[in-house]
Amino acid sequence: MKKLVLQSLLVSAVVSGLFLFPAKLVLAQAQKNCDTPTCDKIIEFPDAWKNNLTLVGVAGGALVDAINPCAFAVFILLFANLLTAEGKKRALFGGLAFSLAVFLTYIAMGFGLLQILERFHISLAVLRFVGIFSIIFGLLNIKDYIGYGAWGFVMEVPQKWRPKMKSVIRGATTVWGAFIAGLIVSLFLLPCTSGPYVVILSLLAKQSSYLIKTGYILFYNVVFSLPFVLITFAMYFGFSAIRAEDLRKKKIRLLHLIAGIIMVLLGIAILTGWL
């Protein structure tokens, strides 16, 4: 327990530093440029720093999705199924096909949600709502660290959906089957992965450059999909499905804690105008 608390404090400190350190640099520079002791300049953050901070926010949201325990559970089950039915080589290609399907599906959903959000003409009131939503989402994840399953639910795929999702995964015994399963499973994962995505897309809706929006969405989904690729190669080179699932179960509360801390910090950054 002490180790988990220390880890959570370390993560909180690191993520907080990513937001606070650039702010201190900007404030120091602004004070340096003041000509009088009673300088009353309005401090404006440079556009380059705002872009860097947005990049940190996108990376933070993507990290929350990337460490999602229910996504790990689905993928471990898929790879173990392919390994039994098709062998290591086919399981490798199947795992990569699944990862590609999730990547493409989430990109498509990202652009679709972005168009919807842009029609709302993101205002300060909407951003405040998004910030509050992010904090609530984070606190509910922290709730699952303090008491996993407290209040009768967890911030994962709903229990009643899981049998259907597992049946889809068990039916994927080929590379193409894994790709199709990735497309379908992406929809099941939405309840536990859409929160961070909606928050980040709301921030991107403020951007005027379509190229910047596209780049951020691609970057988000590369980070989100990367653990699937890493797990694929780890299991291909001998890391067993049983060990992977045991590790996931042991660290599931810590994963919720990390996700919760990041989402709370993102919410605070939005409410204070840093994002």
User: What is the chain-wise order of helices and strands?
Assistant: HHHHHHHHH
Report, as a whole number of angstroms, the end-to-end distance: 34 Å
Query: What is the count of helical runs?
Result: 9
Helix content: over 70%
Molecular shape: globular
Total number of strands: 0
Largest sheet: none
- Range of strand content: under 5%
Number of domains as seen in the coordinates: 1
Radius of gyration: 21 Å
Pick out the low-confidence regions. Answer: 1-31, 33-50
Structural class: mainly alpha
Mean pLDDT: 75
Note down, in words, how this protein is organized.
This protein has 275 residues and is mainly α. The chain has one domain. Helix content is 80%, strand content 0%. It is built from nine helices and no strands. Helix 3 packs across helix 8 and helix 5 crosses helix 7. The longest helix is centred in the N-terminal third of the chain and has 31 residues. The radius of gyration is 21 Å and the shape is globular.
Lay out the secondary structure:
Elements: H1 2-32, H2 47-66, H3 69-86, H4 88-118, H5 124-146, H6 162-170, H7 175-204, H8 210-236, H9 241-271
Helix pairs in contact: 1-2, 1-9, 2-7, 2-8, 2-9, 3-4, 3-6, 3-7, 3-8, 3-9, 4-7, 4-8, 5-7, 5-9, 6-7
